[in-house]
Design brief:
Two copies of one chain form a homodimer.
Chain A lengths: L1 H29 L6 H20 L1 H9 L7 H18 L3 H23 L3 H26 L3 H9 L5 H26 L13 H14 L7 E5 L5 E4 L2 E6 L7 H19 L13 H16 L2 H15 L7 H8 L16 H17 L7 H13 L25 H20 L3 H6 L4 H10 L9 H9 L5 H13 L3
Parallel strand pairs in A: 1-3
Antiparallel strand pairs in A: 2-3
Chain lengths: 492, 492
Amino acid sequence: MRYYQQLEAIFKRIATFEEIGAILSWDKEVMMPLGSIHKRAEHLSLIAEEIHNQINDPKVQELIKEVDLTNLSEIQKANFREIKRLVQMETSLPKDLKLAFVKAITNCEMNWREARQNNDYKAILPYLSEVIKLVKEIAVTRSEIFGISLYDALIHEFDPYRKSEAIDPIFKRLKEFLPGFITQVIETQSKIKLISLDENYPVAAQKELGMFCMDKLGFDFNLGRLDISTHPFCGGLKDDARITTRYQTNEFATSLMGVLHETGHAMYGQNLPKTLQPVYDALGMSIHESQSLFVEMQISRTKEFLSWILPFIKEKFGDHPGFTLDNLFNTSSRVNRSLIRVDADEVTYPLHVIIRYELEKEIISGNLQVEDIPLAWNENYEKLLGIKPDSNANGCMQDCHWFGGAFGYFPCYSLGAITAAQLFADAKKRMPDLLNDIKQGDFRRIMDYLKINIHQAASIYSADELIKRVTGSNLDVELYINYLKDKYLEQK
Amino acid sequence: MRYYQQLEAIFKRIATFEEIGAILSWDKEVMMPLGSIHKRAEHLSLIAEEIHNQINDPKVQELIKEVDLTNLSEIQKANFREIKRLVQMETSLPKDLKLAFVKAITNCEMNWREARQNNDYKAILPYLSEVIKLVKEIAVTRSEIFGISLYDALIHEFDPYRKSEAIDPIFKRLKEFLPGFITQVIETQSKIKLISLDENYPVAAQKELGMFCMDKLGFDFNLGRLDISTHPFCGGLKDDARITTRYQTNEFATSLMGVLHETGHAMYGQNLPKTLQPVYDALGMSIHESQSLFVEMQISRTKEFLSWILPFIKEKFGDHPGFTLDNLFNTSSRVNRSLIRVDADEVTYPLHVIIRYELEKEIISGNLQVEDIPLAWNENYEKLLGIKPDSNANGCMQDCHWFGGAFGYFPCYSLGAITAAQLFADAKKRMPDLLNDIKQGDFRRIMDYLKINIHQAASIYSADELIKRVTGSNLDVELYINYLKDKYLEQK
């Protein structure tokens, strides 16, 4: 037992360094004057070095060997499992490979910004090739250690225990279903005229509306903040959840829905159990994304939510001919074939993800060469989404993920969306009058459902286990397809 | 040489931790949601622990022994001198004493807030006694190691190399001069009617005016920020200087002068030379305070500055009958006998400091018992300032310094004021038309004077050496007295 407790203390210390890093990273995006970026890089790399040193201390390996499982509680066993996994992740890579990788992604990301602006794939090619070469080396090393496939070894970093053999059939089904469905939805929606919401929406009123919704959803402003940044995100720590948004003055919906999305992430953070690391940390990115999409897609983009918020919208911005329930709902659920993933609607979004997922697997297996990515990208967009990128800037260079070495991340977005729909269906089964709560602006029961079933479970189970424990079923793509049908073909 | 370079690397690392701590501390005052205070305490104590471990690493002592001075440049020698001094400061105290001290000041500060609110000196007495007991132990230990007096050992923490035998005659002279002078000034000023500046001053316009002045003084917003906090301060680091203010809407002068004061601190930070630690850090608190008071008292509270800023005040807030040069100057230089140091004017301020200085010396020497402080405080206020505190809350409990264990800090305020006046007189001697610059809002030459002579010298010399090198004289209280006479008896 005392060996285990020593490990607990070490990981408590690591968590404190991670929290410090989280505040410094938030500050970098929200507060830091630009001229100080080189100093902040020093700060963050010192924190990373400290964490590295703690985990790589030979003492940690020795303690792990000494721990006697029979004396541990279930939670402690789960914590020990996560400790071992993280230590294995961290110590599996040779130091040289790690350093080379950090250098490669730093260079590549930096050059990517300019190359994208200039629509110059050739300029980024050598940098991306280097990144991908190293990603493959990482995949090989981790694949051997964890006894999983090359690509699964990459997923593991973002969504532990998730396997592509479970993702493949889900994405296959969506790939079959969505193209025809999208045509059908666009056809149906084309009969509905949208009333433009163009108007001047003052930032102060938008912020008040966002904070009002955060508060109603249970966000604790004594343990968190809302601020502005170029790229909205949720940062900070459990007891200091910091979300950001950006405001445009000609419309309010993007920021409002963005705030609701980030509030989903933040509530996960604020509701995680405390005091034990790493098992009380958030589970991987697919569950994190399920929490943001639960709040954004399952709660907020419903007629019930919009009907509740409508009077407050009018109160904040004055009346407007477009401020009717049907027009707000139809505007917020309009489907379009478009090139940019982050701007995509709920229905086309999975195809953006599937294209990347399939290309990633080809890249990692060596079937697709780095110089051939643009062609393959464009062909897939035309085939699946029926729209051909006008440039690489709006094609394979649009996302930072690959240029930052994040292969295996993309599937989390759509797995999160499917999880969110499945959780909401389960919640409705348990509380049949749930939509009425939402219509009244009473989110206590639905947020408690998430808190008790998802947030408080932290990383005790794998994502698949957790979904099955809560809903009684494995991740169910058919349920998701039916959810989309109900939401998008029932529009009038 | 390579031993010295290893020391340099260690202190570079320590400096990075200190910078991280500075950002976390700024965030604590300006951004952090209150519920997260216990986490922030963990973050800051981990940083403190890391710094402690670095300095106390036995390797540091070994390296110091090995350094060969003959191979070092002058700057490196000065850096080595400062490294040795800091290591001696840090390692001189037994760990138990340090921990007991941190615990005692944390408890005492926490209880002081409530005790002050309740005007209950008895409630704070046991906590303050414990603090003072430990401060004395620290003084004894450091006094032996540095071969200086008990009280000088305390000053050393805030103003290295400063000795009370040099302060005594300065404060003695001010103590003789000021009481009569104050009577004379108040008598003179009583003939001048002030026009009230009461009005509504919007926060946004106040902020614009403050930032306009900061910019004119050379503050680099690419390397710093202005924000709001309950207690204005200057934090951050060389390349990320963060000052704060607070705004009242019924007047603008307090915030404007506060911003100018903190800008003086911040310019010192932004102009320090980089890359070498600790010798390129700021010199002690008396020089730091001289820089803020230089900008506030020597530059900004002059007729020339006010004449330059007046049109901009009118531009920001509209016209007002009180917006005349004479009225602004007379308002900003009005002298009053008052109880609270932080609200005191330039003329009475040194007496507030001298009272604390003399009491501190009596407390540390053991001549004054903790329970007798209120009586001694009140008697001294009556004797020196001619005003008797109506309560301990407005008396000896008004400042946090003693309750936070900061004995030896107070003299820095007045030594800073005297230094600022001496530097300004020197600058005027070198550039006779300097006041004309200020009248034109051109602060380049005066700020360059500070940069070249004070900021860039960092901690290479002691404060006394630096003042003598720059002005050719020792710290000169007569010059300060003449400055006060010129400024306060010439008013019409």
